Amino acid sequence: MEQHKDTAVIALLQKRDESALEMIRQAYGRLCGKIAHDILGNTEDTEECVNDMLMKVWQSIPPNHPECLRAYLITLIRHLAIERYRMQTAQKRGGTQFDEALEELRDTLTSDENVSDAVERRELTCAIERFLDTLSLKARRVFMRRYYMADSVSEIAAQYHMSESAVKISLMRTRNRLNDFLKKEGFL
Amino acid sequence: MKPIDFMDALGDVQEKYVRQMLDEDESAHESGKVGGAVLNTAFPIETVSGSESRIRRSETGRPFGGKLRYAVLLASTAACLAAVVGIMHLHQDSSENMIAESMLQELQIETGTTTATESAAKSTTAQTTASTASAAAIADAQTETVTTAGTAQTERNAAAETEMQTSVSAEKQENVKSGTTTTVVTTTTATAVTTVPATTTVFMTRVADLMTDEETGITKCTVIYEQPYLLGDVDADGAITLLDYFLARRANYQLANESEQHILDAAAYDRANLSRTLISNDPAFSICYSEIKYLALYRSYLGKPDLTYADYIRMACEYPELENDDYESSVQKDMKKVFRNHMEEYGSWTDENEIVSEAVPKPVRDFYNDAHYAEPYDSSENWEYHPLKLEQWSDEEFRQKIDELRTLLAQ
Q: Do B73 and A168 touch (CB under 8 A)?
């Protein structure tokens, strides 16, 4: 959706006009659905997740007034999908891009340290932001695509016109750097 | 920390990082540049509006960016599924055990010692070789195991659990090459007949490793094991050709779509080492159809008839890390250097769905391009995937086409 349409949708939300939600669904439903599906790997859960996201949008705008609606929605859907993913950990799963991405990170990040409370999690987020700042634009973009959006290596390669090998190597190097960085920061 | 904690925390990063990622995508595509690397300008680039930016080549009217994204998404998912199918058959207890065993094997490889590992799935036997083994011995061992696995595949109805061990005879160790370790894990499936190919043999084979120089911080890919076995030889004809590519790609599509029909059986997966981890124990590094395609093209048409997967890895990975992390251009540079006299512009070879190089005979090119044709995208279709012809063919049509291609390749 173009920027001015985003602005119009947000304006509708501010006026409590429910048609805004339908516009969001039409414009971003598939994108958000894809992100949720990559994490959950289940169509039914994905649909529920998208509905939850629309509810959150309704509840959060206003007071929020996102500058970039698309980024806002991606953040929301990702949170909701991961939350749902956590709730389902007792169930057998596997095969989603998110599972694959988690698997890649397991060797890099697993430690006995627990990220137990909200404060620690916030500190970790700040550390991640500092780490992202150390990366080149390209490496950062590839990293975010893989671990934020849960895009597959092949998707990233196609998206950025890179070879799959180049994407894999970029990710591996970034993971290694992340490991070093988090060790220095005391998270591992 | 658990990876999921990291994912959670990553989700809380400031919106600017997300926006930056999204904005960069759009601006890059609008300018015809991605990450500083200029796209092949021989083809006009058009930007497609939608929730995800896509690039199209408008010359032929065929999209490749967006469609390819979904093709490769499916393929990637299929590759993942193939790996998961194999691993799940080995380790049906839990993913945690799978990881623990994987880590154990990594440790074994790093320490140069290996031990037999029994999985909780009752169907796994680990067979190991010493920390030094000859490439020839490994090849023989693989062949031997594959043969056994193939037999097991045909005897799946017997629902027998079989332990297979492959010994490496002393005479085979004449060509000892230090530093090479291979762990072979074999299993048979004790379940009822199913149409889903169960990978019966898994070779935890490191072909290459990534090593970082502590002083310089430069990471290089070192090929530690010259793979004499023809990785990617799906049809077992002793060569890697486009036939292997088509079979692998079709199989990936079938797996991704949970088709009940499968063009490849477990033995073929074993033979080709499809979806096997080959570099540095990183599951991201595995053979998929695109690697087979490149190998086939290089071997058949680009003057590299003896090119192996190990060479391919070396070519793709062994280059110094640049300060600006410009991996792509560096890889391109190396590839161009190696194949300067054989390759056309690099862009011609990155599109999975089209061959334009005249190095490939026109009949073969036409066949390939036709097989990869899909309906052009409608700009309003944000997430629709249009299957390629080769994916739409019935199994019978596909087999006929493979025969047709075999004839073309023989000419």
A: no
CB under 8 Å, gap of 24 or more: what pairs does A12-15 form?
A13/A57, A13/A58, A13/A61, A13/A62, A14/A61, A14/A62, A14/A65
Asked if omega into B320 is within 30° of 0 (cis), the reply is no
Average pLDDT, integer, range B39-64: 25
B258-B64-B269 Cα angle (round to 5): 35
pLDDT at A159: 76
| pLDDT tens digits for range A13-60 | 888 888 888 888 888 888 888 888 888 877 888 888 888 899 889 888
Domains, chain A, in order of start with CATH, read: 3-87 (1.10.1740.10), 97-184 (1.10.10.10)
**A23 interface with B at CB cutoff 8 Å:** no
Do B10 and A148 lie within an 8 Å CB cutoff? yes
Mean pLDDT score, B284-288? 61
User: Smallest CA–CA separation between B97 and chain A, in Å?
Assistant: 13
Contact A161 B80 (CB under 8 A): no
pTM, two decimal places: 0.41
Q: Is the pLDDT of residue A84 over 60?
A: yes
Angle between helices A118-134 and B3-10 (to 10 degrees): 80
Q: Over the range B324-362, which residues count as b (16 or more CB within 10 Å of their CB) and which as e?
A: ebbbbbbbbebbeebbeeebeebbbbbbbbbbbbebbee
A residues 127-186 near B, CB within 8 Å?
A: 128-129, 132, 135-141, 144-145, 147-149, 152-155, 157-166, 168-173, 176, 182
> Is cis: bond before B197, omega within 30 of 0?
no
How buried is residue B15: exposed, middle or buried, by Cβ count under 10 Å (0-12/13-18/19+)?
middle
Between the alpha carbon of residue A146 and those of residues A152, B7, B337, the distances in Å are 6, 11, 30
Residues on chain B touching A124 (C-beta within 8 angstroms): 1, 5-6, 9
d(CA B368, CA B353): 8
Domain range list for chain B = 53-78+206-374+385-411, 91-204
